[in-house]
Design goal:
- With about 120 residues, the protein is an all-alpha fold.
- The protein has a single domain (about 5-95), classed as Histone, subunit A (Orthogonal Bundle).
- About 70% of the residues lie in helices and about 0% in strands.
- The chain has 5 helices and no strands.
Length: about 120
């Protein structure tokens, strides 16, 4: 029963990927044949599935039940251009976030000692 539900959800998602692909083609006034459109949509869906699996594994490895932005960036490590864009996007979001809403991490004594023992040598 659960397998049938998973299959129906997958089919619905694949159909939505196909509709999105058609919409992008129309919006950009591109001439692409039907079979090629279906292939592009299927590839995009398979990529999204693999990305979701990688994201789940990275968050589990970090001991979390919820994925964070670092997990997303790690999961796209195969595509350096995309990883760079995501890092930039993440930095922009952090810069726009008010200081009072940012979470503060409790640093351990070891980290405190490590940061105080660092000596900066200026470039000459």
């Amino acid at each position: 029963m659960e397998r049938e539900e998973d299959d129906s959800v997958s089919e619905l998602l694949i159909d939505r990927f196909r509709l999105s692909t058609i919409h992008i083609r129309k919006r950009n006034a591109m001439e692409i044949s039907g079979p090629v459109m279906a292939c592009i949509a299927d590839l995009a869906f398979k990529y999204a599935e693999q990305l979701a699996k990688d994201l789940e594994l990275f968050s589990q490895h970090g001991g979390r039940k919820t994925a964070n932005m670092e997990d997303v960036i790690l999961s796209v490590h195969r595509n350096e251009h995309l990883a760079t864009l995501l890092r930039s996007f993440c930095n922009d979001l952090k810069a726009k976030e008010p200081q009072s809403q940012r979470k503060r991490k409790k640093s351990s004594k070891r980290e405190d000692q490590a940061t105080t023992s660092v000596v900066h040598i200026p470039d000459s």
